[in-house]
Amino acid sequence: MSTLIIRPAERGDMAAIAEWNMAMAWETEQKQLDLQVLSRGVAAVLDEPRRGFYLVAERDGAAAGCLLVTYEWSDWRNGDIWWIQSVYVTPDARRGGVFRAMYADVAQRAKQAGAVGLRLYVETENLRAQQTYQGLGMEQCHYFMYEQMF
After folding, report:
1. Are 94 and 130 in contact (CB under 8 A)?
2. Which keywords appear in this protein's UniProt record, sorted alphabetically (predicted)?
3. Cα(37)–Cα(43) distance, rounded to whole angstroms?
4. Do residues 100 and 108 make contact, with C-beta atoms less than 8 angstroms apart?
5. Is residue 77 part of a domain?
6. How many domains does the structure of the chain reveal?
7. Is residue 39 domain-resident?
8. Residue 104 lies in a domain
9. Cβ count within 10 A of residue 124
10. What is the pLDDT of residues 88-133, one digit of tens each?
11. Range(s) of the domain holding residue 123
C-alpha cells in the first residue's frame, strides 16, 4: 500500500512548484509562462506567509503535486475565504486521490483557522476538474470573473 502525505512547501520545493505551474498553465490554457517571473512569484509566497502558502503532496516519498492557498477578506461574512489556486498533480499520480487528499487537508486547515469557506476557479472547458470539485461538495458560483492585468 502506498503512503500519501500532505505537507507545507519548503524552499527546496520551489523549482518543482515553478515547473508544475508552467506545466499547468500550458495544459489548461496553452499559455507559456516566464520561468524567472514564476520562480520569483513562488519565492514571494514562501517569503511572505501573509500572501498564502503552498502544500505539496508526496506519494511514497516522491512529490506528486501541489496547490497554493491565498486569502480573500469577506466583509459580508466577516471572515477569510481561502482560495485554492495553482493546482497541479503529476501525470503519473492523477486519478489516484492526490487532489482529494490536498483538498481535505486545506479544508481542515481552513476550519481550524476560522476561515468561512473555500473557493477556486476552473477553466470553463475543464469538465473533469469540475466533476471532481462537485464530487467534493463544492458548488458552482453565480459569478463571472473579470480581470484587467497590468
Report:
1. no
2. Acyltransferase, Transferase
3. 10
4. no
5. yes
6. 1
7. yes
8. yes
9. 7
10. 999 999 988 999 999 999 999 999 999 999 999 888 888 888 888 8
11. 4-135
CB 66 within 8 A of CB 24: no
Q: Which three cell numbers stand for residue 44?
A: 514571494
> For residue 135, what is its C-alpha cell?
464530487
* pTM, rounded to two decimals: 0.91
Report yes or no on 45 lying in a domain: yes
- CA-based end-to-end distance of the chain: 48
Domain CATH code at residue 41: 3.40.630.30
CA dist., res. 41 & res. 48, Å (int): 11
- What is residue 133's three-state secondary structure? helix
Instruction: Tell me which residue of 52, 12, 29 sits closest to 129, measured CA to CA.
Output: 29
CB atoms within 10 A of CB 56: 21
Q: pLDDT by residue (tens digit) across 121-133?
A: 888 888 888 888 8
**What are the cell numbers at 132?**
471532481
